[in-house]
């Protein structure tokens, strides 16, 4: 087992390098070069621009630039005063040592610090989404398999397709409208409430009161974003679980369990259900991926102050260091998720050879 | 079985002949199953109707004398069934119906071209990787794993936010990012089909590699590819509308269902139909594509008994 984990970790390393390569390549394709951004100064002479370009190394070949971004330039001499001579050690540590440069928008901030401040919010949100999506989906899936072919099963099929078809932003808007306007107005008509929105309409902790209030109030802020984001998860998981459950209940040991006279309920929920869960771990990795990607949309709708919103703002203001850092960190998290899913799968399923 | 078939079987039985079951080709059997599958028929006809009215958008707009770009600031936020604007107007007084129609044209147009582009790339790469295997296969798989480890939406918004593509460039972005799933599918199929006896027989009589790949292996996964196409059309519509909603895909003033929802929350109280209609159309289209994919998968499945 240990060997398997170590091997999978080693396999992740080339993938990581590939990701940095892809991200860096896309960045180089983007219009606007660093010189015109840093030297937005009409009085700058042409030769000064050229020296600046040389200092920044934007004319170097792609792989040289990529390597400098990756491992930094503090081990080599650079031209610090733009006079065409190499006269000082570089001061860039490279992203492998956590140096993504400094944010354009938040002057001088380290992108990793910015991400670190917001990572907690994103993890908190996605953890709740995962837990609700998984538990809801497993429940619906098992029931659909138990009542296969009946009305409940057919309804869940339609519901599952619908759940993955509704765009997250549309569902989010619908929930905001319902709990923000329609329901309060309706209740007000019957003399209940004040017509104010029933649930918080976005944000995480109210900054006005300073710090976060007790946990119950914090959970209120989670209800709408989690409900919006978890629906697709419930829909997807329920289909996987139904298929897996049908696989197990058609197997021999379940027939044996029935044949020796065990009560139906016991066979369903002890023999079949437990074995049906282990293939679910395969889908855990892709689920992590879509959660990380989807956090941009959900955080944008509910102004949830996480990494997704940071990336969104950085893209709008073309804050390249922050964009690169968020995409790389997001991908690292995704790889960690994929690894975790593979390892869990190997742990749960003794048939997997490693 | 249809009534004629039943009658034929009954007749043969009466005549004391051996049991008779009409044998059907894959297409005949699929068609027969689809005809009895109401959700699939429903989604097929809905999609057909959506496609027709979207591609007739210029004609319909001309008939109603409406236009998706003409602004009329004194007449904005008009409700449904306003005179001259069957579905009201948006925040700049542009006609909502014609914007929805043209938005559908763009959504379906992008989805179809991008789906066929990524299908083409996916089939070609997958066939080569699965058929030849070896180092090339390893490299392709490594590339796919790398590309898939970056959250898809991150990659999409990264590229489209930085390059600000028009509809044409967006098709290429979707096409060149979306082929990995098809490649994996085709690769694993090709891998198992190439060991079949008829492929070995084809090689024995001297068929070239290309001929084996495209004449003997590819036709055997046509049904898989049709299902794959239907599902990827649905996800492309979703991806395009998500991008446009965030403001990174198709940008104003060109209307798409996604960017019509961008900012629509600000004027909910005055014109809720500006949220409901585009959102409903996205959901309906994606729903129909997914439902159709589901139904087609069952229709083509040889393991399911009639």
In the CATH hierarchy, the architecture of the largest domain in chain A is Orthogonal Bundle
| Main β-sheet description of chain B | none
Q: What is the average of the pLDDT values of chain B?
A: 86
Largest sheet of chain A: 2 strands, antiparallel
> In order across it, which strands form the biggest sheet of chain A?
1-2
Query: Count of helices of chain B?
Result: 14
Average pLDDT taken over every residue of chain A: 83
Task: Indicate the CATH architecture of chain B.
Answer: Orthogonal Bundle
**Residue share in helices of chain A?**
55-70%
Q: Shape of chain A, please?
A: flat
Q: What form of chain B results from the Cα inertia axes?
A: flat
User: Most extensive chain contact?
Assistant: A-B, 48 and 44 residues
Derived from helix and strand composition plus strand pairing, the structural class of chain A reads mainly alpha
Count of the domains of chain A: 2
CATH class of the largest domain in chain A: Mainly Alpha
Describe the structure.
The complex is a heterodimer of chains A (354) and B (306). By secondary structure, chain A is mainly α. Chain A has two domains: 2-97, no CATH class; 112-348, MetI-like (MetI-like fold). Chain A is 69% helix and 1% strand. Chain A contains 13 helices and two strands, in the order ααααββααααααααα. Chain A has helices at residues 2-29, 34-38, 46-56, 62-71, 111-146, 151-165, 168-189, 215-249, 252-259, 264-277, 281-301, 307-316, 320-348; strands at residues 77-78, 88-89. A two-stranded antiparallel ribbon of chain A has the order 1-2. In chain A, helix 5 packs antiparallel against helix 6 and helix 7 crosses helix 8. Chain A is flat. The mean pLDDT of chain A is 83. By secondary structure, chain B is mostly helical. Chain B has one domain (28-299): Orthogonal Bundle (MetI-like fold). In chain B, helix 3 crosses helix 14 (273-300) and helix 5 runs parallel beside helix 9 (179-193). The longest helix of chain B has 37 residues, at 96-132. The radius of gyration of chain B is 24 Å and the shape is flat. Chain B starts with a helix and ends in a 6-residue tail after the last helix. Chains A and B meet through helix 1, helix 6, helix 7, helix 11 and helix 12 of A and helix 6, helix 7, helix 12 and helix 14 of B.
């Amino acid at each position: 087992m240990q060997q398997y984990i170590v091997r999978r970790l080693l396999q992740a390393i080339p993938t990581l390098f590939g990701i940095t390569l892809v991200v860096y390549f896309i960045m180089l394709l983007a219009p606007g070069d660093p010189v015109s951004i840093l030297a937005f100064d009409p009085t700058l002479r042409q030769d000064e621009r050229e020296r600046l370009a040389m200092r920044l190394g934007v004319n170097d070949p792609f792989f040289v630039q990529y390597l400098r971004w990756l491992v930094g330039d503090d081990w080599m001499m650079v031209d610090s005063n733009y006079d065409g001579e190499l006269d000082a050690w570089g001061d860039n540590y490279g992203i492998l040592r956590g140096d993504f440069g400094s944010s354009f928008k938040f002057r001088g901030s380290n992108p990793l610090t910015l991400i670190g401040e917001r990572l907690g919010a994103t993890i908190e949100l996605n953890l709740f989404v995962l837990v609700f999506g998984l538990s809801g989906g497993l429940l619906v899936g098992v029931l659909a398999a138990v009542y296969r072919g009946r009305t409940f099963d057919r309804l869940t099929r339609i519901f599952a397709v619908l759940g993955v078809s509704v765009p997250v932003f549309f569902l989010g808007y619908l929930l905001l409208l319902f709990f923000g306007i329609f329901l309060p107005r309706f209740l007000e008509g019957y003399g209940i409430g004040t017509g104010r929105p029933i649930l918080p309409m976005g944000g995480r902790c109210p900054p006005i009161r300073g710090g976060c209030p007790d946990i119950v109030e914090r959970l209120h802020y989670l209800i709408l974003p989690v409900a919006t984001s978890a629906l697709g998860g419930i829909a997807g998981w329920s289909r996987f679980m139904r298929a897996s459950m049908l696989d197990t209940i058609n197997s021999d040991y379940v027939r044996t369990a029935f044949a020796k006279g065990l009560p139906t309920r016991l066979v369903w929920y002890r023999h079949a259900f437990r074995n049906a869960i282990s293939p679910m771990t395969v889908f855990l990795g892709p689920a992590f991926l879509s959660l990380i990607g989807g956090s941009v949309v959900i955080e944008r709708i509910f102004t949830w102050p996480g990494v997704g919103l940071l990336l969104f703002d950085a893209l709008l203001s073309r804050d390249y260091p922050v964009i690169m850092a968020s995409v790389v960190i997001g991908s690292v998290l995704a790889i960690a998720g994929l690894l975790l899913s593979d390892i869990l799968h190997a742990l749960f399923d003794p048939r997997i050879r490693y | 079985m249809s009534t004629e078939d039943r009658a034929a079987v009954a007749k043969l039985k009466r005549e004391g002949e051996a049991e008779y079951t009409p044998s059907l080709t894959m297409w005949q059997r699929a068609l027969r199953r689809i005809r009895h599958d109401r959700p699939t028929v429903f989604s097929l006809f809905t999609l057909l109707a959506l496609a027709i009215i979207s591609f007739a958008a210029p004609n319909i707009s001309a008939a109603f004398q409406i236009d998706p770009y003409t602004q009329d600031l004194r007449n904005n936020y008009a409700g449904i069934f306003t005179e001259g604007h069957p579905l009201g107007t948006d925040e700049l007084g542009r006609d909502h119906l014609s914007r929805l129609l043209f938005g559908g044209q763009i959504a379906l147009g992008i989805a179809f071209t991008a789906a066929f582009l990524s299908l083409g790339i996916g089939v070609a790469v997958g066939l080569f990787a699965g058929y030849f295997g070896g180092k090339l296969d390893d490299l392709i798989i490594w590339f796919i794993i790398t590309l898939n480890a970056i959250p898809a939406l991150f990659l999409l918004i990264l590229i489209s936010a930085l390059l600000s593509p028009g509809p044409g460039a967006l098709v290429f972005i979707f096409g060149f990012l979306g082929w990995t799933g098809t490649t994996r599918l085709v690769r694993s199929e090709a891998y198992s089909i190439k060991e079949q006896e008829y492929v070995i027989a084809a090689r024995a009589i001297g068929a070239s590699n290309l001929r084996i790949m495209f004449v003997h292996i590819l036709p055997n996964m046509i049904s898989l590819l049709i299902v794959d196409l239907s599902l990827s059309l649905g996800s492309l519509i979703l991806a395009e509308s998500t991008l446009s909603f965030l403001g990174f895909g198709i940008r104003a003033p060109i209307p798409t269902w996604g960017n019509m929802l961008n900012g629509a929350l600000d004027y909910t109280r005055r014109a809720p139909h500006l949220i409901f209609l585009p959102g409903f159309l996205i959901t309906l289209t994606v729903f129909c594509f997914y439902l159709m994919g589901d139904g087609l998968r069952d229709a083509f499945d040889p393991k399911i008994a009639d």
